[in-house]
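Report of the visiting student (M.T.), summer placement. My assignment was to run the structure pipeline on a short list of targets and document each run. The first record concerns ABC transporter permease.
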Amino acid sequence: MEKINEEIEEINEEKFEIVGPNYKMHIPKQKKLALWQRLKEKPIVSIVVLTIILLCCIFAEHLQNHDPKGFYLQNLNEAPSSVFFLGTDSLGRDIYSMIWYGGRVSIIIGILSMMVITTIGVTYGCISGSANTKVDGFMMRAAEIGNSIPTLLIILLLVSIMGKQNMIKISFAIGVTGWFGLARIVRSEVRQIRNSEYVLASRCMGADFLHLMMVHLIPNFVSVIMFVVISSISTSMSMESTLSFLGLGLPTDVISWGSMLSLANRALLTNTWWVIIIPGAFLIVTLMCITNIGYFLRKETNKMQNNL
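After the run finished, the structure tokens were exported:
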């Protein structure tokens, strides 16, 4: 036995080393992502491009080289040049100067419409989610009926009733017809958390509905609806452009990307491509940036929920 123990000790000394349980921690190697993969995961490009467009629209007065509302009749349908950087339209207006002023109006309409959609959708969804079964069923059926009607048809009806359009009227018409989907999402979230202990405790202490909605309900689903809220900006901007293209949007003297595109039919006849391509490119790039940021927020929200 002694010889066997001696041989085991010799083997251990030569081939094995006795260490503690925390002698060496295994740290997995993190794969280095390529530059294009990192840009794909985070919307850095979209944020930078959108920030540049917003700053240019805000400081439009410092970027213009002509009066955006001026009619240069001697330069009708002029191609891009050193005098008119992006050319002129069929009315002789400088497209370069109009782009920044028009972007300001289009973005403001998108933000105002988003505020209307968010206010109505969140309030309606909270009321429906907190109500009893009968009231909730009635409110949801009403929202589903409204959602089944084509949005453009309802907006055209409201626009025809309102008369001459401006930014406030257009924003209200777009916002009051676009909250149905948001209300359904909010209602489903409220139904899940309305019987939570902190909500029941707040009710027992006499809290009213407004207090419950602002303090307990909205903070718990604000991350879930963020994608819908941000996406509503791009949807509202595209709807304003559609209305202007149909001749039912803002008047011609109010410059927006939509009102600039309303001259597209004339541009096709006169083969002046810059009148269509340039405002359309700015509109599409802005919408893509906003949508990309919204998708990123939805992905991050899903990750947070999965971790919980």
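The domain at 65-307 is CATH 1.10.3720.10 (MetI-like fold). The chain is about 70% helix and 0% strand. I thank the supervising group for their guidance throughout the placement.
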